[in-house]
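Chain A, query sequence.
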Amino acid sequence: MTSTDAILRLRELVPVRTVGMFSTITPGGAIHSRPLTLQEIDDQGSLWFFVHTSADWVAGLQVGETVNFSTSDDDDRTWVSVAGRARIVEDRARIDRLWSASDEHHSPDAVAKDDSTLRLLELLPEEAEYWDAPSGALERLKTAVASAVGRDVDTSGQLDLV
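Chain A, predicted structure.
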C-alpha cells in the first residue's frame, strides 16, 4: 500500500467530524483520554483537532509528545487507532477554513471561533491500525502512514524516530 493509499484509507475509516478518544500521558505516567472531534486529515496524513490552550492537558502537552486517537464505527464494525506525536499550532487561516458553526454547539470539545485560546492540535501519525468485523483482522497502515509524514521504517517494522 502506498502512503497515498494509506491516507485515503484512513480518511475512509475516520471521516471528518468523527468524535473519538484522544489520549495523552500525564507527567506521572497515567494515560488520560478525552473526546475530541476530528477536523481534518491532511494530504500528509496529519490529523487536526480544535483545542483550547486554557485546558490543563493542552497547556501541559509537550511538542512531540506521544498521543493516540481512537474511534469506532458500530454500524461498519470498524475500530481505528492512530498513534503519533502532537504539536499545538496557531494557524488562523486553517481554523477559518475548518470552522463549522456546529463546532461551537455540537461537539464534546465545544469551542468558540473567536476564543483567544483556540488552537489546533496536529497529530503527526507514526502508526495507524484498524480492525474490522466480521473478520476481526488487524490491518496496519504503519509503513505507509509513517512514510507519508517523512519517517523511515526499518526492516523489523519499527519506526525510525530520528
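The first strand starts at residue 19 and ends at 25. The chain is about 20% helix and 40% strand.
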